[in-house]
Amino acid sequence: MSPDELKITAEPVDNHRCKFVVSQPIFPGGVRRFQSAAEAPGSPLAEAIYAIPEAGVTELIVSGNIVTVVKQSPAPWQALGRAVGAAIRSALASAGPAVAPPAKPAGDAVDDDTLYERVADLFDRQVNPMVARHGGRVELIDVQDAVVMLRMGGGCQGCGMADVTLRQGIEGMLAQAIPEVRGIVDITDHATGANPYFQASKK
């Protein structure tokens, strides 16, 4: 696929985080996470995105055909999206792989990238089919220090039963399937839920 045929769609999560969905795989081998520019050398994609001067990129997660960029800059994604898109195109046009595989963690330690991959798989196979019955979905945002960050959408956003779903359903599944996970953080803005399955009780 030539750079001209490549399609990149930006899906902002919030002012600091945006997912870029690319029409071809970038890192089909799993998940690669960069937590600083110091980790970028050897991966042209990460080098190019961290080099965007006005972005102030603090983290980069590449999984399959999705590039998630986290920035501290107040600049809107509409302004930065073109630069990120250009960085993705140039990295994919280079001769070698756009993203180098991560170094293996020492000893028996389980790194966040491995956990991210396992949690994402669990969400796809078990969690989202469960909440889809209520018209909801759960999006894995990140795994940091073995803590899962997620966001609820659809019928789960603003749902009065969301905390029950989170604590009894998702937390239980994670504890059973991936005991290395140390906790869950729900970053959903439940106040803006447009179509909750259960109305939240008024306080």
Our count of helices gives 4
Question: How would a textbook summarize the main sheet?
Answer: 5 strands, antiparallel
* CATH fold-level label of the largest domain: Ribosomal Protein S8, Chain: A, domain 1
Strand content: 25-35%
Assign the CATH class of the largest domain. Alpha Beta
Unreliable spans are 192-203
What characteristics describe this protein?
GMP Synthetase, Chain A, domain 3, alpha+beta, 30% helix, three-stranded mixed beta sheet, 203 residues, single chain, 27% strand, 4 helices, Ribosomal Protein S8, Chain: A, domain 1, 8 strands
Care to give the gist of this entry?
With 203 residues, the chain is an alpha+beta fold. The protein has helices at residues 44-50, 77-93, 112-132, 162-177; strands spanning 8-12, 17-22, 27-34, 57-64, 66-71, 136-144, 147-154, 183-186. The protein has 2 domains: 8-93, 2-Layer Sandwich (Ribosomal Protein S8, Chain: A, domain 1); 112-192, GMP Synthetase, Chain A, domain 3 (2-Layer Sandwich).
Can you walk me through this structure?
- There is one protein chain.
- With 203 residues, the chain is α+β, with helices and mostly antiparallel strands.
- The chain has two domains: 8-93, Ribosomal Protein S8, Chain: A, domain 1 (2-Layer Sandwich), CATH 3.30.1370; 112-192, GMP Synthetase, Chain A, domain 3.
- The protein is 30% helix and 27% strand.
- The protein contains four helices and eight strands.
- α1 packs antiparallel against α2.
- The longest helix is centred in the middle third of the chain and has 21 residues, at 112-132.
- The protein is globular, with a radius of gyration of 18 Å.
- The N and C termini lie far apart (55 Å).
- 33% of the residues are buried.
